[in-house]
Structures are given as structure tokens and as C-alpha cells.
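F.,

This is the one I mentioned.
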């Protein structure tokens, strides 16, 4: 896992980076002296986690997180800060932060937060949150596998489909018609699931996935995939009614990007369909 440390204090960057290098799961550490520098770095240096100070000169850490989410950057984000009041924590988690490490901290404190995040825990115990994530993954695998009559493997992922990828979205509403959830799926796995449902060969489905689009026959099948996911798209278990599906080219901003960034809950999964490939899927509760 590559981690980007963002802090306008060189000394603090050195401290955080030193402790990160003692964590087994961390394979590389990058540094940025400001939020603006981080924004310039991310397109050329992909990372798996951002650790950021709260108060910095220029753009604050919270503003950086909000800007990344508005631009559909889903890379997980944690704060390392002396600002640990309840109001700050509420603002951080509302914006999409995975966790917050309060200064001063020990190496064990930082390792616990990182390891807890990797285990699917942003609060509470690792067992309870990790178990919940596993249950959700198994439920998704069961739904999709039952639909396409093939083995589907689903595991929790750190982030969802990125803006650079071709994606399909499905929007859902509650019984009153109000938009209540969104599913975002990378085109390769959308094509694979749709192709398997129509008995299309993996090679043909892969060709369509590479083109970044779905033909009418696969679009119709993906409608069925999205419809089934409506049973589980919301974390509270509420059944949703599928409103529409739409495809987007790499780099194209989703019309619902702001809603996704401000969502109450976002969960990310890696979906693998035997013979048809792998892709990321996000379930967003509005």
C-alpha cells in the first residue's frame, strides 16, 4: 500500500513517514507540502491512502478532501491532526474521511488506525466492522452469482471506480420516488456480468469492455444486474426501485458526483466473475 502524507510541516511529514515505514502493510510513502501539491501529484503518482493535516496554509485538509471527492477521486483519506473535537470529527467523517489520528500519537496509534482501516473498521471493533463488510460482500456475490448462474467473488475494496475509468451508474429511488441510492460500476465488470447473463463469450464481452461502451443487448442485461443490486444497494437494507442506468467515458464527470461526495455511506467492492474479469463497484446510500 502506497501512502501520501500531506502536511505543511516538514518535521511532521518526517515523523508520520517514519512511523508509516514501520507498518508492514505500507510498501511506499510519498510526501506533499500542501494540498495544492497533493492535487498535482495524484494524477502521476497513484496512492492507496492519503494522510493529511487538518490546518494548513492555503487549502485546508478538509477542503482537499472535499475537492477530491467532488472530482470523483475515491482514494481513502485519513486525518492526522491536533484538531480532534467532536465537531471536527463530524465534519471529517461527513466529508468522507475513513479515520482520524489525533496528535500527539505513537507509532502504535497510527498502526492501529491503518490496520483497522484495512480490516474494514473506521470505528468500533475490527471484528464487528470487518464481519459486517464480509457479510455485505457475500450477499452481493450471492445475488450476482444467482443471476448469472456462475461463481462470483466479491471482496471489500479501499476505493471505488475512479474518474479515469469507464463507468456505468444505476440510480435508485425510494417508494415515494425520491433518489435514495446510486451504484457505480466499472465498465469491464458491467460488461462481464451482462455478457454472462446473455451467454456472450468472455472474449466478446471483453472487446466491448475495452471499447468503454455497452451495446444495446448488454445495456439491457446490465439493467437486470442493476435491478438485482437494488435489493442491497442501501446499507440500511431498504429495497430501492431502479430509476435509470447510464454509461460514462473515462474522465467524464458523473452528473451525481456531488451527491456521491456528500453521501451518507459509500461502500466499495472488487467483483470477479470467473472467465469474465474483475472490476470495482460502489454502493452509495444518499
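My design for it:
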Amino acid at each position: 500500500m502506497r501512502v501520501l502524507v500531506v502536511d505543511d510541516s516538514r518535521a511532521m511529514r518526517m515523523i508520520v513517514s517514519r512511523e508509516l515505514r514501520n507498518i508492514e502493510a505500507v510498501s511506499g510513502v510519498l510526501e506533499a507540502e500542501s494540498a495544492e501539491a497533493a492535487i498535482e501529484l495524484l494524477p502521476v503518482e497513484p496512492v492507496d491512502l492519503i494522510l493529511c493535516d487538518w490546518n494548513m496554509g492555503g487549502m485546508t485538509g478538509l477542503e482537499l478532501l472535499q475537492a477530491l471527492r467532488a472530482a470523483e477521486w475515491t482514494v481513502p483519506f485519513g486525518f492526522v491532526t491536533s484538531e480532534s473535537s467532536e465537531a471536527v470529527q463530524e465534519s471529517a467523517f461527513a466529508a468522507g474521511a475513513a479515520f482520524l489520528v489525533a496528535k500527539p500519537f505513537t507509532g502504535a496509534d497510527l498502526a492501529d488506525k491503518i490496520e483497522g482501516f484495512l480490516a474494514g473498521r473506521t470505528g468500533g471493533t475490527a471484528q464487528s466492522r470487518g464481519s459486517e463488510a464480509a457479510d455485505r460482500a457475500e450477499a452481493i456475490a450471492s445475488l450476482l452469482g444467482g443471476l448469472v448462474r456462475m461463481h462470483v467473488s466479491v471482496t471489500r475494496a479501499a476505493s471505488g471506480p475512479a474518474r479515469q475509468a469507464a463507468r456505468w451508474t444505476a440510480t435508485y429511488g425510494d417508494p415515494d420516488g425520491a433518489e435514495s441510492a446510486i451504484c457505480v460500476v466499472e465498465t469491464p465488470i458491467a460488461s462481464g456480468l451482462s455478457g454472462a447473463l446473455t451467454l456472450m463469450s468472455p472474449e466478446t464481452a471483453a472487446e466491448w469492455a475495452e471499447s468503454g461502451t455497452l451495446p444495446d443487448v448488454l445495456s439491457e442485461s446490465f439493467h437486470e444486474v442493476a435491478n438485482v443490486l437494488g435489493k442491497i444497494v442501501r446499507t440500511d437494507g431498504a429495497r430501492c426501485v431502479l430509476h435509470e442506468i447510464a454509461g460514462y467515458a473515462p474522465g467524464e464527470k458523473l452528473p451525481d458526483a456531488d451527491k456521491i461526495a456528500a453521501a451518507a455511506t459509500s461502500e466499495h467492492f472488487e467483483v470477479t466473475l470467473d472467465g469474465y474479469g474483475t472490476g470495482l463497484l460502489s454502493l452509495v446510500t444518499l
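Confidence is low (pLDDT under 50) at residues 121-131.

Talk soon.
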